[in-house]
Design goal:
Shape: elongated
Strand order of the largest sheet: 2-1-4-3-5
Order of helices and strands: EEEEEHHEEHEHHHHHEEEEHH
Strand content: 15-25%
Radius of gyration: 32 Å
Structural class: alpha+beta
CATH topology of the largest domain: GMP Synthetase, Chain A, domain 3
Largest sheet: 5 strands, antiparallel
Number of strands: 12
CATH class of the largest domain: Alpha Beta
Helix content: 25-40%
Number of helices: 10
Amino acid sequence: MSDVTVEHQRTVAGVRFQKVGKLYHFDYSNFPDLQVGDFVIVETARGRQMGEVMGFAPAEDGEREYKPILRMATPRDLVLKQEWESRQDEALRVCQNKAKELGGFDGVKFVAALYNYDGSMLTFLYSADDKVNVSKLWAELAKLFPDSQVEMRQIGPRDVAKLLGGFGACGILRCCSTFLTDFSPISIKMAKAQGISLNPSEITGMCGRLRCCLVYEYEQYVEARGRLPKKNKRVGTPFGEGKVIDVHPLQDAVTVYVAESDSYHLVSREDLVPLEELEALAKKAKEPCTKHGDGPCECGAKPGKAATDEAGDS
């Protein structure tokens, strides 16, 4: 019996640095016993960070290189992380007071101060409508926090809402602060496709941008609308010929106005007859054959123009 070599697919560890944040993948070949829920120390573009292993995924094909996990987090690392996190609110107050003292930051909102697990890095997050020069403030903060590498990072309104949390207009906790790890592009077209009022209070979230939930059912609405006739289309119904005046994608039905009886009816898709499409097909069936040219044709259609002219000349 011949030996069979089984090739195992390489996997990488998905690590998350925030409670609701993106997953970043790292090589864990040096730690074969790594498990979900373990805390690890890794090197990132923003310095050395501690993250939690959330799962494992197949490595992407190609020549992509994954940074290795440096080591497992120790109990001391976890205690340090808690200690530095407890100092974040005080660091934020220091930043806000220093900005007020320097002046020129009236339109800037300082949202959070974040230490990494060992306090070697301190990041201040702020939001503003325009780009702001924070170099003077950064220099002052670097003096006030000499043991940490200070970084100033501007974030958008969606990220601010994610950090602050709270309740959305629907009455439950905001999606961005509970389970959304990334923000999808959202347009006004999505609201129109779902028949939602374009009143700003109906489609904007607490961040002042279009609500993230507009994207959740958008594809289902597009698919459902694609199976139904559009408004003002002529259709046949069990109540007679009528015109579509409204579309109900979730009900898989349309509202039809029947002029003959001056009445409105909710008609399901199965009971609709697309009159305009049938009339177009009937008209095309009466036209000369265009598929086989002007030569002999067995498709049953009338001969083409050239064949008709030739028959008339003879």
